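Comment thread on ticket #2218

A.B. wrote:
> Attaching the input chain for the structure job we discussed in standup.
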Amino acid sequence: MKNKPKIILLSLICTMLMANSVRGYAETEGSTSETLTPDIIVAKDGSGDYSTIKNALASVPEDNSSLFIILIKNGLYKEKILIDKDFVLLMGESRENTKIIYAEQKWVWQCKNDPSDPLPAVVNVTGNDCIIMNMTIKNNYGDLYYDKPLPELECNIENYEGRVKPNGHQYTFLLKGNATRLIVLNCNIIAAGADTFCPWNKETGMYYIKDTYFEGYTDYVCPRGDCYITDSKFFTKGGSATLWHDGSNSTNNKFVINNSRFEGVDDFKLGRYTHDAQIIILNSTFGSNIADKNIYQAKPDVFWGHRIFYYNCSRDEGNYSWMNDNLKLDPSSLTPINIFGGKWDPEKFIKDNNLLLHYN
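C.D. wrote:
> Ran it. Output below, let me know if you need it in another format.
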């Protein structure tokens, strides 16, 4: 590994151990600042340890159990990556100028079934305790193929035209398997299609997202399990829904959006659910052109009723009736640590490690 200049990235990283081989963050008294060197620097111009993110990730130890810091210098990285190790911090040099962009269509990928390409998103996560910050991640398949004929595939796909269309399913970010405790900070996550941001561990998934911009078509922010998004912005380019949630594993599962802004094309729709869901929107605002349609049930696979709640929300030109307060819980109780059942406190970890000081 090359010698690298020291830069201030994080405070002293806490020891991360829990009993029974379940990794977590040890509690500490206060925090201590320390000058740290990233474990790896990625730079397109060859000035770092690697010129591709893929090769940098391959160098993370298989049994990694402490935060492994990969600093990605500004540049356009046209690659699809897999984070399959635990405790990986992927930190861009700047949100707008560190870009991971790749064109992939879910159904085209699925039809190819290329064994050397095991996952369908631009950024794929199967490791625990992953942190992504300061970057733009985009699936640009729809931009590249919006005016081109649909591809001819060697497999049968039900509703072929609807699914393979340029604004069909295009995962930008996909978390799968048993991966949990995901943090996303200060990012742009964009697709020219549906299913943009998909953290999909419905049994034990816990995700914390702050200061992030989302853009896409139908169901483009669609977590399974427990998810908390705050201080973020959503822009809906079209389709039948902005938000989607699968909370069918437990009646306690929640998708909470706080202090955020929803905008989009004329008559954009706020959300839908096709499984049991619980979506709570707090202290947020909606553009005047949002459709007069509440988050709605789209399929019959629902047993626990319509659990869509609002508190202190407003539309630019006056609320529709369904936007008015109907929250049955004390809104002050909806903190991340409570939403995650006391199992994880991402805000404490972020504060202890001064992560917000490293926004760029």
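A.B. wrote:
> Thanks. Noting for the ticket: DSSP finds six helices and 23 strands in the chain.
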